[in-house]
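Chapter summary example: a protein plus magnesium ion.
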Amino acid sequence: MIHVSNICYTYPDGHKAIHDVSFSVQQGECIGIIGANGAGKSTLLKLLVGLYILKKGEIIIDNMPMSKQTLRHIRRIIGFTFQQADDQLFMPTVYDDVAFALRNDGMNEDEVKKRVTNSLKIVGAIHLVDRPPYRLSEGEKRLVTLATVLAMEPKILLMDEPTAALDPQARRTLIHLIQGLPHTKIVTTHDLDFVLECCERTIVLANGTIVYDGPTEAVLTNEPFLREHHLELPLMLQGRK
Ligand SMILES: Nc1ncnc2c1ncn2[C@@H]1O[C@H](COP(=O)(O)OP(=O)(O)OP(=O)(O)O)[C@@H](O)[C@H]1O
Ligand SMILES: [Mg+2]
């Protein structure tokens, strides 16, 4: 579903954020990307949706090499939720935000209504439909951003810190929701318990490079390695009573 070969990215100010990163993702996999603040997790996801232009290397999505010509098509296949929900929500009501990309695609209003209602129901946010997004709590915004993406019916879901700012119950609901979604999924997070529960495979980024790519359990039980990369054992494995 995704092939990334030797990609590099340097921000316009000269900061090297991603260096020589390669990995492949099979259909239906759910992968956790973890690492310290500034490791390059958000940058990597943004490269996968073509928000930044690659300096070096290649990204192939669903057998299509990413280029100016294929970007429009690739953006229909990949849904991306931003780390900051405010980067994604900008319309006067939740309904309009979830409908935005569908209308942009020229979909008729009956179908738009069906998709908006359905995706808000899936994430448990239908009661927010008429609210202005900027007045929602961070957790509510997060659910709405996921609905905006699901409404497009993508094959791949990229989620940047989806459980941040969620209360324990909302977090639990989101975990069940994500586990139930059949999409190919890549999730960046500092919520290591989430990774342990939802992702069979984990990639650890450090200073823009991959330092681990393999089974989740093997890395999340390796305390010295985790400590070296500003991480720690998931609470579930800390033996707290
Ligand atoms: N627009 C930008 N211009 C210059 N440097 C940037 C920009 N955005 C991010 N960076 C730098 O790139 C590096 C990677 O940032 P990124 O946001 O990808 O990290 P992250 O792993 O997502 O961190 P966090 O866990 O805090 O979300 C950081 O050192 C950051 O300072
Ligand atoms: Mg980030």
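Key point: Residues 11, 13, 15, 17, 35, 37-43, 83 surround adenosine-5'-triphosphate (ligand 1) (CB under 6 Å).
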